[in-house]
């Protein structure tokens, strides 16, 4: 078993292009099924850990290949899959009462 705090200290790397996307700051979890649905990594414009312009990488759990001791390897073929599919713009703090998040 792995703790969320352990995941947050690991770098997320896209093996398709070798790009370091950053570190996890949130997870999307399906509470009914007890499954992690996606990793959420803040965008590059994050300033002092507080502001990212609302843009985040949302990486589906199906794209996570390996969780190592200090890195999480993901496969995002941004040229084929269009980066917009993984790049979301949303408020920094959100509350989704109806979806259980």
UniProtKB/TrEMBL annotation:
The record ties this protein, via InterPro entries, to:
PRC-brl_dom, PRC_barrel-like_sf, Spore_YlmC/YmxH
This protein's superkingdom?
Bacteria
Transmembrane segments annotated in the record for this chain? none
Cite the PRC-barrel domain residue spans from the record. Answer: 2-75
User: What protein am I looking at?
Assistant: YlmC/YmxH family sporulation protein
């Amino acid at each position: 078993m792995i703790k969320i705090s352990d995941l947050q200290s690991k770098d997320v790397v896209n093996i398709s292009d070798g790009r370091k996307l950053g570190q996890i700051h949130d997870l999307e979890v399906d509470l009914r099924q007890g499954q992690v649905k996606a990793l959420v990594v803040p965008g590059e414009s994050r300033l002092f850990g507080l502001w990212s312009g609302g843009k985040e990488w949302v990486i589906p759990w199906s794209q996570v290949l390996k969780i190592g001791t200090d890195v999480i390897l993901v496969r995002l073929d941004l040229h084929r899959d269009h980066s917009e599919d993984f790049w979301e713009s949303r408020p920094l703090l959100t509350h989704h009462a109806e979806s259980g998040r």
